Amino acid sequence: MMIKVGVIGSAGYTGGELLRLLVHHPDVKIDYVHSKSQEGKSIISVHSDLIGDTDIKFTGDFNKTVDVVFLCVGHGEAKAFLAEHSFDKNTKIIDLSQDYRLKVNGNAPTYQGVPFVYGLPELNKDEISKAQYIANPGCFATAIQLALLPLAKAGILNKVYTTGITGSTGAGQSLQSSSHFSWRANNIQAYKTLTHQHIAEVVQSLQQELGGEKQPKINFIPWRGDFTRGIFVSQQLESDLSLEELTNMYEVYYKEHPFTIVSKSPIHLKQVVNTNKCAIQIEKVGNEVAIHSAIDNLLKGASGQALQNMNIMFGLDERTGLQLKASNF
Amino acid sequence: MMIKVGVIGSAGYTGGELLRLLVHHPDVKIDYVHSKSQEGKSIISVHSDLIGDTDIKFTGDFNKTVDVVFLCVGHGEAKAFLAEHSFDKNTKIIDLSQDYRLKVNGNAPTYQGVPFVYGLPELNKDEISKAQYIANPGCFATAIQLALLPLAKAGILNKVYTTGITGSTGAGQSLQSSSHFSWRANNIQAYKTLTHQHIAEVVQSLQQELGGEKQPKINFIPWRGDFTRGIFVSQQLESDLSLEELTNMYEVYYKEHPFTIVSKSPIHLKQVVNTNKCAIQIEKVGNEVAIHSAIDNLLKGASGQALQNMNIMFGLDERTGLQLKASNF
Amino acid sequence: MMIKVGVIGSAGYTGGELLRLLVHHPDVKIDYVHSKSQEGKSIISVHSDLIGDTDIKFTGDFNKTVDVVFLCVGHGEAKAFLAEHSFDKNTKIIDLSQDYRLKVNGNAPTYQGVPFVYGLPELNKDEISKAQYIANPGCFATAIQLALLPLAKAGILNKVYTTGITGSTGAGQSLQSSSHFSWRANNIQAYKTLTHQHIAEVVQSLQQELGGEKQPKINFIPWRGDFTRGIFVSQQLESDLSLEELTNMYEVYYKEHPFTIVSKSPIHLKQVVNTNKCAIQIEKVGNEVAIHSAIDNLLKGASGQALQNMNIMFGLDERTGLQLKASNF
Amino acid sequence: MMIKVGVIGSAGYTGGELLRLLVHHPDVKIDYVHSKSQEGKSIISVHSDLIGDTDIKFTGDFNKTVDVVFLCVGHGEAKAFLAEHSFDKNTKIIDLSQDYRLKVNGNAPTYQGVPFVYGLPELNKDEISKAQYIANPGCFATAIQLALLPLAKAGILNKVYTTGITGSTGAGQSLQSSSHFSWRANNIQAYKTLTHQHIAEVVQSLQQELGGEKQPKINFIPWRGDFTRGIFVSQQLESDLSLEELTNMYEVYYKEHPFTIVSKSPIHLKQVVNTNKCAIQIEKVGNEVAIHSAIDNLLKGASGQALQNMNIMFGLDERTGLQLKASNF
User: Fold this and answer.
1) ipTM of this complex > 0.90?
2) Smallest CA–CA separation between C9 and chain D, in Å?
3) Is B192 left (phi over 0), alpha (psi -120 to 50) or beta?
4) Mean pLDDT of C143-148
């Protein structure tokens, strides 16, 4: 039986990337592709690479009784959208915005009385499999926490110094001076130094694994990179454990998680670009530990992970429709 | 039943790209991955993006009785390889080099007495479906001829002025000064001006459609582009036909060919990068016609088309394993 | 004695590039830097690379009695600006827009009754040295005509097939979907096929050299390139002259022009990026001639050539302030 | 009077960049351009962007009595070269390799009994002005220490977490898999994690300012970036000083140093690319300080700084020949 899917906000980057996955997913029937701004137009007029794959059109209406709806709207807009529209109780919702990620006083945000589960399969697979509503993690948040969760689980996480670099698609398709090709090509810039909004959800996840009152500190400097897709993160912390112990701890933690892979060789960003993978590598000199991680910000960092969550929610193999050819070059 | 596949020369770019496709092909079992230079190593040590997908190792030996073998070796090396090794009569061979593409005195080159078929499905699908041996087309040759074949079929092709630009993977992975990042980044250069070796196979295909003695003239200037994947070609010629007549002629010609798509909107390279598609667009001002075409040089221009040929040879839907998510960004 | 300079429209790309040159020009004193949109702000707030070089501020007013004023405004805006403002009769004007480039019925456009001279030093150096007003050539126009003028001079120019590629700065700093980094990175697209507005000024210059009624035909397809600076053009035509005769003809034509250089080795774009040079190379196979040319679109294609014109108008060595270190990498 | 200059190892990246500067330096006469590998060839055959600027040829011999010789050879090769050749006692030497940067037991390395001075003008301008031999700093070392020296001077430097990204020219022109365009384009990778050789010279400089026995700890993770020119570094440390106090401390420290500029606005890499500048910006949240710095690795990080040292050694304004137009885009 095919899963009937609706996509809200489908003219943006994460919406488009989700459509690229959905058109080839063997268990999915796209019910509607909603966009206020593009209503009536062919989706090819916006996502031109889908030429020859589909001739669906954007709709202004949408069906509230599909099996699952993906919210690919901007931050703040998901909450506003759900405040305005009542979906059927049986319709699952996967929200790619940050609106429902953070607990308030220890309680997950709810919709129609039902809580949102934070949709990081490596952390919450069981809860996701039973969830009605998913808050899909942020891109930087995914790359940073996947590199730290095993340490949190082992209770040995304290202060972390983190630098990450992101492709231009992380900033969405709005036209800004920092998204202008002439500016961004061959350029690097720090932004939101020590104040990036994703750290809150990283800390929340780490605390879930740390247990109790422990409050890890993540000092994060994000950089704008001169590429379109991907996130690469290097983090530093101190530990007495040996490199072998650390690597082993990570391998055990991610044993049942096919997309998160611990590499003993040096990783590089393009290993994972255009895939749903997260590659992790650990290095150690003296007591100083460096942990590198890499994801595709639009896939494992957004639409790929959203689809992985859908697969888990509907009892499918989580890899369905996500065994993607890396572009590699 | 699974198709048993062997790959010769699997440490190079086209070999790697083929492996990326084969590991996810539902009807394929990879029998061996041959590389003299990398024998005994994991294929991940070379094609690092396959981490988590497979743990196959390169072999120095190979099995001569697989269902199909792909030759991903350099130009000249395929012929030398087949001269040295006798494959089983039932083993199909798909050669990605240029060694068997050109007829000599009107006769296709042979191996063990059986002729090679030129593996452009849009031109020779029936012959491919019955072929034992395939000469897979060149990358520039694919992009150029797909943009001209309908005109040849209509008998109206004469002199063509062609400029094309190719990504760095078109030149293979050998280290050359023109493949150095410091040189190639943000750079453009013409090379092999009016002497590119692919024109011979383009002319051969055009003559097949033109029939008789007509000798089309293709004046081709290739450029090195500052990107890794893809080929974009613009060609100029004169015609009395209207834009509508031309576009319609192309749509009819490619009606049964799912990967070659005639676009009425402006095309761009990234529409097809990381897919097996060829996008074509025609423009006309006065009597002057411009035809743009775009492919991914490693897919429709090499390994993707090779797999498309395998699908046709084994009676599968030609799209099997080739419905790829475009990277688009 | 220092030349007092004013710049109108100095917040844009060509204005900024001109300021980068002017701050180091030994014979120039910048009198004002005009920008309606940025009035009162430091020019560093827009042209951040000038940090440490100057602390000039944008003004909303301007002085009509400077020695020379550069108009770095958009197409159409130069004419509107001059219609509204009367500069002193002794103030020279160099207009970087296309507003005054084309003759009407054989007559150059005028301002306050004085004609504009088309500011291509390789074509009109004498006229420029005596001119009051200069219409600075377009970027593609510069690269295309410098590659054809010697043929026109020899009277042997007929039909030309031209493909050119331009960096993103050629489209200015306005935010458009085709200037978004996510779109343009690693991408190629044709635009304004056979209809580019610069061809008119190319034909005008070629006719000036051809003399009489000859009407050369330039079939030009421009491409958007995935780099920021530079133009590379390849042109095809037929000729009976030998490569040696052609190369010699070009060397003679450009003997007195230090920035236009005929290369016998293959040229590439980065040879000239961040310089005021134009590199030209000729190749020949049979009767078919290919001529490649490369410039930096913001320098020889805009602000550098404008300054070269200023130097000539004020009797300076035309290279003054223009002996720039190529970035090369 | 013109300074007679010789360049050893002039076919490499730093040699080429130095030549680009020397050909336009008003007080320099290039005496010879030495390269064993390219002897007899025109320098344009290697540094093709110098076309039209010079027709010097590489020589295999060299003159030991020039005023100054630049050693642009690889690490280890400078020491070997000077062991083999005796330059005149009056010939100044500027070595761009790392061979003479580090003191041994507190003593600077010597040549012919005369010590090398570490050529960072912001740290040692007086010593440089009197020096016979200069050890020119490393590229990463320059960017890292310029961002930390004021803190060391104030005696408040302890442990620093540093991430830096470098362009491909930092790795030289040798062909390696990580310098292949197909690999490096759109890619990011960490390398030499916590073990980069430049940290030793950074620590040596910081100790010079800290005085006494203090041993600062720099935890440095370098990344390979997907651009050709430039280094961007972000460093984290703790401090009780306010942002204003810190910024003021830096401005005071660099008051007499025209190339090192403290910015109160966000800096970005292309602000300094193709210039000899170092841009520094400080940010602070709570007690956590982030310091960003950016240089061009071939200029302030190598050949530009070498020429700045020459200017100081010969009593010229240190900016002579170094007031370069930023490429900016």
Assistant:
1) yes
2) 18
3) left
4) 98
